[in-house]
TrEMBL record:
Protein name: Small ribosomal subunit protein bS20
Organism of this sequence: candidate division WWE3 bacterium RIFOXYA2_FULL_46_9
Keyword presence, Ribosomal protein: yes
Family, as annotated: Belongs to the bacterial ribosomal protein bS20 family.
Biological function: Binds directly to 16S ribosomal RNA.
Keywords: Ribonucleoprotein, Ribosomal protein, RNA-binding, rRNA-binding
InterPro entries: Ribosomal_bS20, Ribosomal_bS20_sf
Domain of life: Bacteria
Keyword DNA repair attached: no
Gene name, Swiss-Prot/TrEMBL: rpsT
PANTHER family, per database record: 30S RIBOSOMAL PROTEIN S20, SMALL RIBOSOMAL SUBUNIT PROTEIN BS20C
UniProt cross-references to Pfam families, sorted A to Z: Ribosomal_S20p
Molecular-function GO terms, alphabetical: small ribosomal subunit rRNA binding; structural constituent of ribosome
One GO term of the biological process aspect: translation
Gene Ontology cellular component list: cytosol; small ribosomal subunit
Length: 93
């Protein structure tokens, strides 16, 4: 248990940060899971692109809030965008 005032404040502060980070991490996880489920169910391209836009917004906001590093957010956006674009125009060999 924290004894000093600053230690008590640090406990409160870390609890607040933890709940804030968990909120954003859940939103990220849910939005990416929606895209994965859409890819698995072979949904329409328009629906998938709408889900991608939502996920990109969530990733951008999370990186702005310092919950997620901006490079990781960019990698995830690129990964899912390339998966969806591969469905739009299949690569010919």
């Amino acid at each position: 248990m924290a004894n000093t005032l600053s230690a008590k404040k640090a406990v409160r502060s870390s609890a607040k940060k933890e709940s804030h980070n968990l909120f954003w991490k859940r939103r990220i996880k849910n939005s990416l899971k929606n895209i994965e489920q859409g890819l698995k169910d072979k949904e329409d391209i328009k629906v998938l692109t709408e889900k991608l836009v939502v996920a990109q917004k969530v990733l951008d906001k999370a990186s702005k809030e310092k919950v997620l590093h901006i490079n990781r957010a960019n990698r995830l956006k690129s990964k899912y965008a390339s998966k969806i674009s591969a469905l739009i125009k299949p690569i010919k060999k």
